[in-house]
Design goal:
Elements (H helix, E strand, L loop, with lengths): L1 H16 L4 H30 L9 E8 L7 H16 L3 E5 L7 H4 L18 E3 L2 E5 L14 H13 L6 E7 L6 H9 L4 E6 L3 H16 L4 E7 L3 E2 L6 E2 L6 H9 L3 E5 L3 H8 L4 H4 L4 H17 L1 H4 L1
Helix pairs in contact: 1-2, 3-11, 5-6
Length: 315
């Protein structure tokens, strides 16, 4: 670097002393400047890489799939819970469910585990709480349901590390992570700490929700996490009395986004009362009424997600 800077200084001085050589000297100056720029870029990259944590696998966990959304209130946690239950049912395998939403955990209530506290191993690892065949962990098990978590970014990242590596997950074929909305500290922490197999993006067809879903998909691409596809939640409402269909949040918006980004359309979930009620009461639709149309929608999405996740293994 010092030699290149010295050469650059000598060329500038020669251009002043010998103006008739200026065109040739400018040519050399451009090349030297380019070399300096490349050196600076490489140096900055190395410095940044030193500051990033090294990814490491979670002991015993084979596949990590995150369920994410750009905006809150689009039903992401409902989708994550029913996908996790569907994976366990379809693959007949061991599945874990991690609630990574530190500020608004929903998994304890949806999995009928509210108020329970995890035990610890002799090594101080948290033991997941099981229900419906899933191993579950959430910040909601560690704080009172009605108490707000008021933390800055560093504390959030430490909590995420604890939920990932401070839990005795055992042998899991799949760990489904319910991410918080947005593209903040939690998303970056998970993406940088563990090898994420893929991400599923959830959105409603509404234009405002799609703007944030688009950002979420782009973020995962930037950090090197494969986007397995998009889920269109609350796609259509079927009137239970007359059967009329109403597209309350718009029609086909997620499908258009998928085409724009060249992403797979994993499927649609209708706006149904039974989906909301069963999750609120801690009996998700895929276990309380597995033969229903709503449950079938989740199974279709899960099958498509698994196909995308394992397509490289078939080629």
């Amino acid at each position: 670097m010092a030699n290149l800077q010295g050469i650059s200084k000598a060329i500038r001085l020669s251009a002043i002393q010998r103006p008739h050589f200026a065109p040739q000297l400018r040519y050399y100056m451009v090349n030297v400047s380019r070399c300096l720029s490349q050196r600076d870029t490489e140096r900055q990259k190395k410095v940044l890489e030193r500051g990033l944590p090294k990814k490491r696998p979670i002991p015993g966990v084979k596949n990590i799939v995150v369920v994410a959304s750009g905006k809150g209130g689009v039903g992401k946690s409902t989708v994550a819970v029913n996908i996790a239950l569907s994976v366990a049912s379809i693959k007949k395998c061991s599945v874990g469910l991690l609630d990574a939403d530190v500020f608004g955990p929903s998994i304890p209530r949806m999995m009928n585990l509210a108020g329970q506290e995890p035990e610890t191993t002799k090594d101080g690892l948290l033991i997941p709480i099981r229900n419906y065949g899933l191993s579950c962990m959430s910040m909601g098990f560690l704080v009172d349901e009605k108490s707000p978590v008021v933390w800055r970014g560093l504390m959030v990242m430490q909590a995420i590390q604890k939920l990932l590596f401070g839990v005795s997950w055992g042998q899991l074929d799949y760990l489904i992570i319910d991410m918080p909305p947005g593209t903040g500290d939690t998303q970056l922490s998970v993406s940088q700490l563990v090898p994420v197999s893929g991400a599923a993006i959830v959105s409603t067809p509404q234009d405002i929700a799609l703007l944030d879903a688009l950002k979420g998909a782009q973020m995962f691409k930037k950090v090197g996490v494969p986007v397995l596809g998009v889920v269109q939640n609350m796609s259509v409402f079927h009137c239970p009395k007359c059967g009329h269909q109403s597209h309350i949040f718009g029609e086909g918006g997620v499908h258009r986004m998928a085409e724009e980004l060249n992403l797979t359309k994993l499927g649609d979930i209708p706006l149904q009362l039974d989906i909301r009620e069963t999750c609120d009461h801690g009996r998700p639709i895929t276990v309380s009424d597995p033969a229903s149309q709503s449950a079938e929608a989740f199974k279709t999405i899960t099958n498509n997600l698994l196909t995308e996740l394992h397509q490289d293994e078939k080629t």
